[in-house]
Amino acid sequence: MDSSASWRIAGRNDVYKTMTKLNLSKKNIDELLLTLKMRFEENAFRHKELDWDKINAKLLARPDKLRSLYLMEQTGGEPDVVGHDKKTGEYIFYDCSAESPSGRRSFCYDRKALKDRKENKPKNSAVGMAEDMGVELLTEEEYRELQKLGNFDTKTSSWVKTPDEIRKLGGAVFCDRRYDHVFLYHNGADSYYAGRGFRGSLKV
After folding, report:
1. What is the pTM of this model?
2. Which of 76, 176, 181, 204 could be cross-linked to 157 through a Cys-Cys bond (beta carbons 3.0 to 4.6 Å apart)?
3. Per CATH, the architecture of 102-203 is what?
4. Which residues 6+ apart lie within 8 Å of 134 measured at CB?
């Protein structure tokens, strides 16, 4: 066995130990890495000239990021690599599911909106769940960059990170794709709909 292969096995064993503490099994980890690799290879146009082995090594070194990716996957996000920050060396993952992740819909915007809502409270908030998952909501700019890679949210919509000046006045913003155009809309931050979720970003 060559030294690089030995390193990968040793690295993965360390990840297993850490992930077990986070209630993720060896099987969970292996299945996640395989899923991510297959998606990476099947959608090469999203990340031209990037090397999966280098990304895999980064993931093995960051069990906390693997946990976030696992949660993104389990809630229907279908995360994939969409870029590489050459300054920091970080790889950028976005939720790339065709529609807004099915396990993150019917949420209001943030924890404050959830707390302030008096009746018919949703089960969670987009910002609150994103924080629990260790991811960030896409900004409007990031959402528009994602839409350059395909047609997303043609039937659903996704909350995006809302500017403070809008949120302070009680509002929040979301995006979707209709008529082959990307639109930005507003709603009360405490509103929620069955067809609206959120998309996350993660840097590794």
Report:
1. 0.88
2. 176
3. Roll (3.10)
4. 64, 65, 67, 68, 71, 202
